[in-house]
Amino acid sequence: FKDVSIRRALTHAINRRQLVDAYVYGFGGVAEGPVSPGHRWYAAGDPIPFDPTRAEFVLDSLGWQRGGDGWRQRDGVDLDFELLAVSSGENALEQMVQAQLADVGVRMRIRLLELSSFLAVAQAADRNYDALSIGVSGDLSLGHVAAMYGGQDGPLAYPGYNDPLFNTVLRRAREATTADGVANAWRDAQQILSHDLPTTWLYHARGVQGVNQRVQGIDMDLRGELVNVERWLIHDRKAR
User: Fold this and answer.
1) I need a labelling partner for 3 at 20 to 30 A (CA). Which of 136, 178, 219, 229 fits?
2) Percentage helix, strand, coil, to 5, in the chain?
């Protein structure tokens, strides 16, 4: 949808906490943007909480009224769209979102494709789709953010987003020579994305690690499990 107000309304209608709790069994966190809160360059943007009442109010104010069948229309046009997703045995996520949007009168049709067909459509130059559901592997340099939003070209440029101000801020981040300069540039970048909302981020997933009780001194973070491996200790119970 080109109207950011509709994108915000649909985001209000999605219960991301429920997705985290039910889909990834709590092993993740609700996402407000492309940068995880645990990242040193994370900056809070304008939160869009789960608020279906607000979603309905915005859609009503934009002229999308419920018909007798419960679905929204404006000027005889249905408020519906198609979501592309990869066909797998784990499509509960898309179905949960579909049900949540239906609660506010928005019909989302799910189209499942096998992976190669999905990527062929998602990465095509014309981006001939309404919306898609995809997971993106983040990296500490935030290269995934630049790849998704820093222009209309490239395999990760799914939103087709191309904003001159964002591109200027992204260039500031790349050219900054101080830690504060980098952090400030990424803060501004996240604020722009929060305002424009080219993507609705659902959750930041985190892995599950098991630690033997004999191993002490482990301190994991976003850099991975082995970030402080040189300080790990093996506790020898026999030494007692």
Assistant:
1) 136
2) 35, 15, 50
Q: Which residue has the tokens 């997703």?
A: 85
Phi and psi torsions of 71, nearest 5°: -90, 150
Query: Phi first, then psi: what are they for 196, rounded to 5°?
Result: -80, -30
Which residues, at least 6 apart from 138, have a Cβ–Cβ distance to it below 8 Å? 34, 35, 36, 144, 204
What φ, ψ does residue 203 adopt, rounded to 5°?
A: -160, 155
- The CB density around residue 64, as the number of other CB atoms within 10 Å, is 22
What is the average pLDDT score of the chain?
91
Contact indicator for 84, 124 with CB cutoff of 8 Å = no
Cβ(109)–Cβ(80) under 8 Å?
A: yes
pTM over 0.90: no
Closest by Cα among 199, 82, 189 to 135: 199
Cα separation, 99 vs 13, whole angstroms: 10
pLDDT of residue 195: 96
Give mean pLDDT, residues 42-53: 94
Query: pLDDT tens digits for 99-143?
Result: 999 999 999 999 999 999 999 999 998 899 999 999 998 888 999
Tokens coding 136 = 């993106």
Which helix or strand (DSSP H or E) is residue 203 part of?
A: strand 203-205
> Among residues 22, 151, 13, which one has the least CA distance to residue 90?
22
Residue 66 in 3-state DSSP? Answer: strand
Residue 223: per-residue pLDDT = 54
**CA 131/CA 145 separation, integer angstroms:** 18
